[in-house]
Specification:
The chain has about 100 residues and is an all-alpha fold. It contains 3 helices and no strands.
């Protein structure tokens, strides 16, 4: 039972890290045209998002490779979900 809980939490952690990373990317791109220093915003956002995600994956990896792979799968699933969500929103705005 403990292993199932660990695997479930790792999947959820990967999903949350993915939503943080790709949601932050979306917010950065959304506010990029309003910024006085777009390069600084882009680089700062990239470094901040990457640092948080790398630290999160580091903490997750301490539990084993299968846990890390499952969290990476959750990370990719969140990317797919956000592409689907914002991709549909972009098509609605074009119509």
């Amino acid at each position: 039972m403990n292993e199932i809980l660990t695997l479930t939490l790792s999947l959820i952690s990967g999903i949350l890290l993915g939503f943080f990373y790709f949601g932050g990317l979306w917010l950065t791109l959304k506010h990029l045209h309003k910024s006085n220093q777009p390069a600084l915003l882009t680089i700062g956002s990239l470094l901040g998002r990457s640092a948080v995600c790398l630290f999160g994956f580091y903490l997750i990896s301490r539990s084993g490779l299968e846990v890390l792979f499952l969290s990476l799968a959750g990370f990719i699933l969140s990317k797919i979900a956000l592409i689907h969500r914002f991709g549909l929103q972009a098509h609605k705005e074009e119509d």
